[in-house]
Amino acid sequence: MRKILALDFDGVIWDSVRECLVVGAEAYRAAGGRLLSQEWAEKHFYAGRPLCRTGQDFYLLFRLPAENPNLDFARFPYPDFIRAREAYREEMASFEKLFYEIRRHWVLDRFEDWANLQAPYSGILREISEISQIYADIVVVTTKDEHSASRLLGRWNLHIPVYGKEFSTNKGEVLKYIQGKCGILPEQICLVDDLLENLLPHRDLGVRLALAGWGYNTVESREWAKEQGIPVLELGKLRKGLDFFLV
Questions:
Q1: Contact 215/221 with Cβ under 8 angstroms?
Q2: How many domains does the chain have?
Q3: Tens digits of residue pLDDT in 218-237
Q4: Do 165 and 92 sit in the same domain of this protein?
């Protein structure tokens, strides 16, 4: 039976937190924001990254600590983060436009510098290669643009199909398209993401789900996933963790 493993990019294959910080800080300053220091920005950004879904959310990692010096993203309630999204909706929209414009300039004009700000997680490319050769077809389903993701993968000699934000920012739509294109059942697809927010909306599609425990998520979200019957995968043990799907 044909099986397709659909992997998110950032937080599953790629550790891009440094790149997101650098581009995000540049966009925040361009939007008129002020960073107290690079160390201050790094501290809050790294702690808050697991709360974010898209580049738009990065605005809050700079703005909220600026308004509350005692804020600790490691203990920040996720419902409060959702409410902050609504409260700063307009500012976030402006920031998002700047963020992706600045990233685009980095990719087009300073690609090597940009690529050097990020890297694949240790050992993940070897595991992907093994699974694709023996067990399943692998595709990337991401809200990153297809060009950037494909070019980064190619830099490391990994060439697999990428469905980026140009195709759709709704991963459910992408999964349905893959199912129809390949003529397979929903349960023949497994989506691996590092964010529960990206997994849970697709439970009703019938596809299999798994959480990348090494990505941008919290202890609480990993525990909750286990309670809900969603496998939590470990880096270095990807094949074993996918036994539920690949057998």
A1: no
A2: 2
A3: 888 999 999 999 999 999 99
A4: no
**Domain closes at, from 80, 115, 150:** 115
* C-alpha separations of 212 from 10, 51, 101, 174, 235 in Å: 11, 15, 29, 19, 8
110 and 125 in a common domain: no
Q: Tell me which residue range forms the domain holding 219.
A: 4-15+120-246
CA–CA distance, 2 with 190 (Å, rounded to integer) = 12
CB 21 within 8 A of CB 42: yes
pLDDT of residue 18: 97
Q: What is the pLDDT of residues 71-124, one digit of tens each?
A: 999 999 999 999 999 999 999 999 999 999 999 999 999 999 999 999 999 999
- pLDDT band with cut points at 50, 70 and 90 for residue 1: confident
Last residue of a domain, one of 78, 97, 115: 115
DSSP class of residue 203 equals G
